[in-house]
Design goal:
Elements (H helix, E strand, L loop, with lengths): L9 E6 L8 E7 L4 E5 L5 E6 L12 E7 L7 E9 L2 E11 L2 E9 L6 E7 L6 E9 L5 E11 L4 E3 L3 E5 L5 E4 L8 E9 L2 E9 L4 E9 L2 E8 L6 E9 L2 E9 L2
Antiparallel strand pairs: 1-4, 2-3, 2-5, 6-7, 7-10, 8-9, 8-11, 11-12, 11-13, 14-15, 15-18, 16-17, 16-19, 19-20
């Protein structure tokens, strides 16, 4: 990416994918900060950055996009579906000519980038048959839910299906930081339609190092909180907010 005609202030890059292959992943390389940030192949990805007094922060070659192969889509997956069932989501995948498969893992994500295993289903065919598998997600979130299937062979080789997305009705719970960039080591946390409960806040720097951990108790609904953090250097951080059936990562910029 050719960066030109910038001045000392905060900017935002936005990447909007269209018809991107699910077997390819993309990463934004920030040469100045030394970071690599995943770019979603299905949703808009935003990346905030700052032009400072350091001339290298405005370097024309500061940013580049690197594409990597995530894994070849196996021909055994003829289809993958995710369908709403009241407050749950039914995940179904069809397999043609199943051979040498030990198990399938259902992986789930809230942002289409970071997936975690939520179910393991033992393969029942392996005789070149056509089989349909089902799993019900009873812990679905309001808003977007992403799923993919990982097949595991008897020799531990793995392959991934395409990613499917389904949204449950209802306003999506949201946590945001305002103002952003933050100053004076105080993070203004804005909670919108968030369920009551305890939430863990983990702040990491651009190197993936944890710099602060907090726990807050929320009475439910919407609220604005000021979170005092450790003294932070200027740069990019990630604030991960985790609670029961809730997880959200927020990019935080610290400027002095």
């Amino acid at each position: 990416l050719n960066l030109q005609s910038t001045s000392k202030k905060v900017y935002s890059l936005q990447f909007k994918p269209a018809n991107m292959s699910q077997v390819v992943t993309a990463y934004l390389q920030d040469k100045f900060n030394g970071t690599s940030t995943a770019i979603s192949m299905v949703d808009t990805t935003k990346y905030n950055f700052e032009i400072t007094a350091d001339a290298k922060s405005a370097g024309a070659d500061r940013f580049s996009i690197v594409f990597k192969t995530a894994g070849v889509l196996p021909i055994t997956f003829s289809s993958v579906k995710a369908l709403k069932q009241n407050n749950n989501i039914a995940v179904q995948w069809n397999v043609d000519n199943e051979t040498n498969v030990r198990a399938y893992e259902v992986e789930k994500s809230l942002d289409g980038r970071e997936f975690k295993k939520v179910n393991t289903t033992k393969a029942t065919g392996n005789d070149h048959s056509m089989i349909t598998y089902n799993w019900l997600d009873v812990d679905a979130f309001k808003g977007d839910n992403y799923y993919r299937i990982r097949s595991i062979s008897h020799n531990s080789a793995t392959e991934y299906s395409k990613v499917v997305k389904v949204a449950l009705q209802g306003e999506k719970s949201l946590v945001s930081v305002y103002p952003n960039p933050v100053q004076d080591a105080i993070i203004g946390l804005q909670l919108k339609d968030v369920a009551a409960g305890s939430y863990n806040l983990v702040l990491t720097n651009s190197m993936g190092q944890v710099v602060d951990v907090k726990t807050i108790k929320h009475a439910g609904g919407s609220a604005a909180l000021n979170i005092k953090t450790a003294t932070l250097k200027s740069g990019n951080y990630i604030l991960e907010v985790t609670g029961t059936n809730f997880k959200q990562s927020i990019k935080v910029l610290v400027a002095h």
